[in-house]
Write a structure and sequence with these properties.
- There is one protein chain.
- A five-stranded mixed beta sheet has the order 3-2-1-4-5, sandwiched between helices.
- It is globular.
- It has a single domain, classed as Nucleotidyltransferase, domain 5 (2-Layer Sandwich).
- The chain starts with a strand and ends in a 6-residue tail after the last helix.
- The chain is an alpha/beta fold and 139 residues long.
- It contains four helices and five strands, in the order βββαβαβαα.
- Helix 3 packs across helix 4.
Length: 139
């Protein structure tokens, strides 16, 4: 069974998928949200069914002091809607600094600013999912 990693934003969702053994995360795409939660969930449902996903790891943006702001609350609600609608378990995974780390990796790889904008969310999803896969929580 595979794990799906999501970096949920208001306009896009970065998507990553684990290999079948749950060892590595690969970036799939940056999905542009439709402005309708039902359409977004239907797309995620397609991925779940197509790739035999048994768990979804949702990035959980906390403030640096550990408090939860509006983005964190939005991600909590999104994870709850996934569980309620798709009947699949979710894990909220602390994603502090993942976007910054993804940006740094892309700069070091000499990816142009324009191209970075298109893949940053996908790379953040990879870091979120890989962090979970490498943790004791994944076992």
């Amino acid at each position: 069974m595979r794990k799906l990693g999501l970096d949920v934003g208001t306009k896009t969702i970065g998507i990553a998928m684990s290999d079948a053994l749950g060892w590595t995360a690969q970036g799939i795409e940056t999905y542009r949200r439709k402005g309708n939660i039902d359409e977004d969930l239907a797309y995620i449902q397609e991925l779940v069914q197509l790739h035999d996903v048994d768990k979804i790891v949702v990035g959980f943006p906390k403030n640096m002091n550990g408090t939860i702001g509006p983005s964190g609350e939005m991600c909590q609600e999104f994870a709850r809607q996934i569980e309620d609608t798709l009947n699949i378990s979710t894990v909220l995974w602390d994603e502090r600094l993942t976007t910054a780390a993804a940006e740094k990796m892309l700069i070091e790889a000499d990816v142009s600013r324009k191209k970075r904008k298109g893949v940053i969310d996908k790379m953040a999803a990879v870091l979120i999912l890989q962090g979970y896969l490498d943790s004791p929580a994944a076992n």
